[in-house]
Amino acid sequence: MKARLLSENRRLYYQIQSLFEIVLKEKWIAKNKRILIPMLKASFFNRDASLVAQQLLGKIIRRKYQGHWLAALIIETEVYYIEDKGSHASLGFTEKRKALFMPAGTIYMYYARGKDSLNISCKGKGNAVLIKSAYPFFDKFTDANALQIMQQLNLTKAGDTRPIEKLCKGQTLLCHALDLKVTEWDQQQFDAKNFFIDDIKATPDKIIQTARLGIPAGRDEHLQYRFIDYDFARFCTSNPLTKRNWAENKHYKIVPLEKARGNIT
Question: 3-state SS string over the chain?
Fold first, then answer.
């Protein structure tokens, strides 16, 4: 009888201990909540910058803001090489440009007209890709209130709510909508708990290839190092398809992804 009682007590003890461990585990997961999907590895960025820029189209930027996951689909990128006069790296190494000379996959953020801008270093010192624009993205991993949060983060100068199609239309608007700041992320690595890029296996059928924006005259402004997801062209920073007096195969090209890779001059 005594042995049976001890056995029952031991079983009850182990049950309580197991439940306690489960509760602790659930509390830990809640506290350290992260999306259980793989982020792009540094090896993805350790390739030619033009290839990286094109293959980033269709990838998802995920950002955790005050416990809420936000996301945006990358629809426009620009390439910058160290020998390219339009690049920051061509001006030489400084502490502010240090991330461009760090290992591929390092985040490089700087102020564009006083506002945050997101870039990622690629293979070869000084080479990088600029995330030019994106489109808000929602799936089972994003917070139910993600759109409202992004809109609140990125109000107009007048304090009005931006429509969804304009929330991430430009490099600085994108950073505002996802709360990405130079002071927090420059020279850092992507972090699966807070900020990363993942692959949902969505590849554009066609890419628009054209010249970059805002490059001063005489700084290789003619190079067609800007890539746009054709299906999202109307949401990019400046749509080549609707620009007055612009002609296909002169000011821009529409090419399948594979052909665009080898056609960047």
Answer: CHHHHHHHHHHHHHHHHHHHHHHHHHHHHHHCCCCCCCECCHHHHCCCHHHHHHHCCCCEEEEEECCEEEEEEEEEEEEECCCCCCCCHHHCCCCCCHHHHCCCCCEEEEEECCEEEEEEECCCCCCEEEEEEEEECCCCCCCCCHHHHHHHHCCCCCCCCCCHHHCCCCHHHHHHHCCCCHHHHCCCCCECCCEEEECCCCCCCEEEEECCCCCCCCCCCCCCCEEEEHHHHHHCCCCHHHCCCCCECCCEEEEEHHHHHCCCC
Question: Which value, in Å, is the radius of gyration of the alpha carbons in the chain?
Answer: 23
**Structural tokens at position 76:** 């426009």
Q: How does pLDDT run across 22-79, given as a tens digit for each residue?
A: 444 444 444 444 556 789 999 999 999 999 999 999 999 999 999 999 999 999 999 9
The full set of domain ranges for the chain reads 1-32, 42-261
Phi, psi of 74 (to 5 degrees): -75, 125
Q: Does domain 42-261 have CATH number 1.10.3720.10?
A: no
